[in-house]
Structures are given as C-alpha cells and as structure tokens.
Amino acid sequence: MMMNMVQAINSALAVEMEADGSVVVLGEDVGAVGGVFRATDGLMKRFGSERVIDTPLAESLIAGMATGMAMAGLRPVAEIQFMGFSYLALNMIISHTARMRNRSRGTYTVPMVMRMPYGAGVKALEHHSESTESMFVQIPGIKVVVPSTPREAKGLLISSIRDPDPVIFLEPTRSYRLFKEEVEEGAFTIPLGEARTVREGDDVTVVCWGAMMPLTMEAVDAAEGEGISCDVIDLRTLSPMDPDAVIRSVRRTGRVVIVQEAPMTCGLAAEIIARINKKAFLSLEAPPERVTAPDITVPLPQGENHYYISPDRIYHAIRRTASF
Amino acid sequence: MLTDDHDPLKGKMLRVLDQDANVNEDLVPSIDDDTLKRAFYTMVLSRVADEKAVAMQRQGRLGAYPPNKGQEAASLGPAMAMDEGDWFVWSFRELAGLLWRGLPLDRYFLGWMGNEEGNRYDERLRITPPSIPVASQYAYAVGLAYASRYRGESAVTFAFTGDGGTSEGDFHESLNAAGVFRLPMVFIVQNNQWAISVPRSRQTASATLAQKAVAYGIRGIQVDGNDILAMYAASKEAAEVARSGGGPTLIEAYTYRLGDHTTSDDARRYRLEAEAKEWEARDPITRTMKYLYSRGLLDDDEASDLWDEAGKAVEDAVARAEAFPRPSLEDVFKYTYEDMPPCLEEQLDELRGTEGRP
Ligand SMILES: Cc1ncc(C[n+]2csc(CCOP(=O)(O)OP(=O)(O)O)c2C)c(N)n1
Fold it and tell me: Cα–Cα distance between A14 and B305 in angstroms, integer?
C-alpha cells in the first residue's frame, strides 16, 4: 500500500498494538486528535483510552511514566510533541531511562520508545526545528534511530518497539508527508544498528540520515549527471553507531562527504570522520568533508534559507571532494 | 477516615503514640505483638547498620553516605502497610523500610561501597534501585502504578522523597498525573526539616507539605513521622484507599534528620545543636521501646539481646559485602545494552589491551 511517513508510523503502531497487549501509547494529544501530526490517528478509538493515553502536559512525567511502565514489563511508545520540548525530559532520559539496566545490573530494563518529530526546513515556530541528535548520542544506554523514508520508518519503528533497550526515535518533520512509497501492510522489521546503502557508486561516499536523505539524493543525481558516481549510505541508527558500512565504502572510494543537518561542532559527522581516520586512513584520497549547519541558533522562517542545508551545498561538497 | 479527621489545611497532624508512650487508644491500628516487636527490631537493625555505614565511611571503607538516623519510623510504617507485589520506590534515606521489605543488608552496604551489584536484588521484592536526582523517582513511580493497574494487578506503588523534593518539578508533575489517572499510589514525603542546609521554610510558603495534595485533588495527611503507629495507620489507610480504586494519598512524615545530610556534610554549620537535641528526645526507637515496655512486650534484657543480634547481623552483612568481588572490566560494559553492540565490543577490546603495565 502507498503510504507517507506519518501513515507508515501509524501503521507500525497499529500492527504492534494489535499483536502485543503490552504496547501502549502515551503523550500530549495522542488520543482524541491523534497527535498534532496525526501519527496516532484512530488508535484511541481502536484500542481505548487506557492504552492510548492523553497525558497531562508534562514532558518529564511522560518520559518517567514510560520508564516506569517499561520497568514493569509494558512496551510504552511515548510521543514528545516536538524535539525542542524533549529538553524538559532530558533529566529523566539521562538519569533513569538510559541507566536503569546498568544501575540495577539487569534487574530492571526499559524497553520503551520515545518518538519525536525533529528538524528544520518546515517554516515552523521557534523550538520546532531542532536537530540535536548528538546530545542523545552522547547518552550511553539508549539507542537513537532516524528513518528516512516511509517504509524505513515502519520497519525501524517496529524493531524499536520490540527492542529490549530504550530507543529515541527521531522522525524528520520535513519528510512526514514529502512522498509516498509502497509499504507492506503487515508487520516487518528493519534491524537496528545497520546502515543502508541507498545507491551504489565508486567515486565518492556520501553519508546522510533522516531529513537529509532526499536532499542528498538531489545533489547526488546532479553529480552523477557530471559523471561522479556516489555511494550513498543512510546511517539510520545513530547510536550505537555501526560505521562498518561507511568504512568499507570509504576504503573503496577514498573520498567521503557527510551531510548533517545539525550544527557543526561535535556533531555526528565529526565522530564518523574520526572513525574513518582510524580505520580507513590510508585509503583516503581527499580530506573528509562535512556539510553541516553553522553553530548558530536555527533562524526563524524568514532567515532559515541561510541555515538549512540545500542540495546545492551538498553538490558542491561532492564536487570538491571528487576533484581534490 | 484519618485523612478526613486530620485536614492539613486545619493544621491537624496525626499522632497515635507520643514521646512518653501515651497512646491515643481510639487511633491505635491493629498490629499483633510479634509484628510490633519485629518492627522494633527492624528499626534497631537500621540504626546499627546506619551507624556502621557512617563509621566505615570515616575509615575509608565506604563512599559518601546519607544517614537515616531519626527517620526509621517514617519509612518503616509505609513498608509495614505494603502487600506482596506492591512497589517500593525509594530515594536514598529509607533503610528501615527496605529492611522490612526484605532488602538484603549486604547488598545495601555493597551499593554504598560503590558497586552496582548492590542494586541487584530479587525482582519479586519490587524494590527499585536508589534514586539520587531528587524527586525524579516520582515520575517512574507513576509509570509503575499505571502498569500495575493496566495489567489488572492490585498492587500499590509507594514512592518516597524528602521535603526538598517537594520543590522539584517532578514532584508536581507526578502528583498531578497520579491525581488525573487516580492511580493506586502512596506518596511519602519524609519532611526531615532540612534539605542539606536549606530549611523547610525555604522550600515552600505552604503551612504544611501535606496540603499540597489539595491542589492535585488527592488526599493528604501530615503524620508524626517518629510515631510508628501513626505512620503505619496512615499508610495502611492510604494503601486500602488506593487498592480499592480511591486514588493516591500524599503522606507528609514530620520527622528530623538527626545526622548530617551525608558523611560529606557538617550540619553544625547551618543549624543549632539545641534543635537536634530537642529532636533526639523524640527518637522513634526510644519511643517505640517505651511503648513495648509499657505493654509488657519487651524488657531490658530482651532489648539488649536485640541490639546484640542487630550488631551481629550487621557485621555479617559487612563481611559479605567486603568479600564481594570488585566489578571486572566486562561488568562495567555488560549492562549498557541487552546485547553488546560491536562498537562497544571494540572499545572493550581496546581497554583490555591497556590495563596494567607491561
Ligand atoms: C535534582 C537534584 N538536585 C540536587 C541534588 C543534590 N542534593 C542531594 S540531596 C539534596 C537535598 C535533598 O533534600 P530533601 O529532599 O529534603 O531530602 P533529604 O536529603 O533531606 O532526605 C540535594 C540538594 C540532587 N541529588 N538532585
């Protein structure tokens, strides 16, 4: 069935709730209205308000409540309305969600998912365009997953719900309704911790994730028009990171561009480059490039074009790297 | 209902047993003699273990430690009101209650000695690990309670924090949500008058902490926290209300921290010794002992036997804790995720090669 990403996420939640009574959904406005992006549309009607829980407006509570539910054996899927409001839940995530397994030596585990829309490029209000995934990647004990297409979103979300560890599931707001693709109606999984090769090529490795994927493909198409063949990798699990696919590719191409929506300093691109330097140093033919946002606050919509990564910027980086 | 007769907004505190062991016969909860004696022993055991932990810290055998001295009844009363399957969500100053619940004392020492193995106990005890970020445990307690009810269990979740904890956002968010969902919960605030150096009057302008319940639409009661009978009675009633679908209760246990905040603190810097002296006269152990004497359930000989027995139990527990192996390199990696991801395996391998000198 053709689905956009919101529909695919909704479908993932529905099939998992159908199959497993311990899966519950909670958050702000997830019930009657079906979430501000409608990702939980229809779930309350179908599964009842005990399982699809409109919580009070309190992010730390939502994170803590989901943590406790998971400790008691449920599989909660919490929604934080926007990534910019997950900061109110950070203490809970860092101090308890991520550590409960280690603190209790495995007596208590936290198999929960925390979904949240992230990213700019949607002309939103302040705080609605955040891309602070590196903060989450710095937290041992949680996994961080970012889907880039509808089908990916469904398969990765189902895997996240079934995963024995807490997963922060970042949904690219810009891609929610950007395009549709064929998605299986039933349950299927896409393994966490494995990157995906989106397109094979020989000249330049291009790494991206989430909302950057469609923009990167535009740039790659343009580069290929000029005879630069790109090996495009969608990282999809940001933590724990498995850079093997990237390393293997760079050993072959010797050139790499990493596209990161977030500000530059201490972003994930830096980490990936460090790992490339360690494991593929002698294969490098050009300095690894990163295309990132500058280290500034996301501008409000009128200035956002100066900030948000364009296919052109990616294209130029690919060309620079290819001709170094 | 005790909560009806002791409205915190009217400044009424529940007390059953006073300092001189006078009892308000109308309010005495039914507790059989053996249970009462066991409760007394548990407080004694807690006190001996607590003093041992402080001494061990001074000797460098144990890390920073928050003493429980003077607050034994405040956590024990609620623990006595718990049923099997109830959740005990503690903070870090609830030793007597934990012992009643069955927490192995050697694990308790091991934890404060700096080993996560100290937090590995039988999951059937339903004791969560200690929670250091003040009041944050209230939020996951809400989730535990929600899950219990969702699965059709009759469990009640008991969650502890301190007077300082009532100023935290998580305190508010959790009581508010527990009220909204009418969850089977008992929130206990151990008001020991101090949050490190900050007095209770600096935490809130409210006359009592218990009255905060009113704004959340739940029951609240202020209880003499050094009175084991009152703490038990209030907890028992709250648990029954919760179990029968009546929603949560907030219990303010009015007590006092006789020791320093932790072994790193020096309470003389911010509070008068006269104040502590005054509270020493209200020691919950002495008070319970006088009560047992007056009931003919205990005499000097037996009491001294109990202190000896506690001393031996503590020495045994300490010996076991100190004999426990230190965590291996693998141990500190192993519990990050269920399965160790390749990138962690790699980091572990790298460290393996660098431990010790050639
Ligand atoms: C969120 C947070 N802030 C600060 C601290 C440092 N700290 C530890 S205990 C404490 C005081 C707690 O007071 P109270 O809640 O009254 O409990 P008590 O220690 O008196 O039992 C503080 C400030 C902490 N552990 N957590």
Answer: 62
Distance of CA A87 from the midpoint of ligand 1 (Å): 21
- A2-182: CATH topology is Rossmann fold (3.40.50)
- Cα of B69 to ligand 1 centre, how many Å? 17
CATH topology of domain A196-323: Rossmann fold (3.40.50)
* 8 Å CB contact between A9 and A77: no
Residue type, B236: K
A128 classed as catalytic: yes
CB A281 within 8 A of CB A250: no
Helix B105-112 to helix B33-58 angle (10° resolution) is 30
Nearest CA to ligand 1 atom 26: B133
Residue B6 a catalytic site member: no
Phi and psi for A239 in degrees, rounded to 5?
-155, 135
Rounded to 5 degrees, what are φ and ψ at A168?
-90, 120
Domain extents in chain B: 2-327, 329-358
Put simply, the answer to whether B129 touches A73 (Cβ < 8 Å) is: no
Q: Where do the DSSP E strands lie in chain B?
A: 13-14, 87-89, 157-162, 185-191, 194-195, 198-199, 219-224, 249-254
Q: How many CA atoms lie within 13 A of A268 on its CB side?
A: 28
Find out whether A275 and A207 touch, Cβ atoms under 8 Å. Answer: no
Domain range annotation of chain A? 2-182, 196-323
ipTM of the prediction: 0.97
Q: Is the CB of B198 under 6 A from ligand 1?
A: no
Extract the tokens encoding A253: 């191409």
Q: Do domains A2-182 and A196-323 have the same CATH topology?
A: yes
Nearest Cβ partner for B136 among A91, A143, A240 = A91
Q: Which CATH architecture has domain B2-327?
A: 3-Layer(aba) Sandwich (3.40)
Q: What is the pLDDT along chain A (324 residues), one digit of tens a residue?
A: 999 999 999 999 999 999 999 999 999 999 999 999 999 999 999 999 999 999 999 999 999 999 999 999 999 999 999 999 999 999 999 999 999 999 999 999 999 999 999 999 999 999 999 999 999 999 999 999 999 999 999 999 999 999 999 999 999 999 999 999 999 999 999 999 999 999 999 999 999 999 999 999 999 999 999 999 999 999 999 999 988 999 999 999 999 999 999 999 999 999 999 999 999 999 999 999 999 999 999 999 999 999 999 999 999 999 999 999
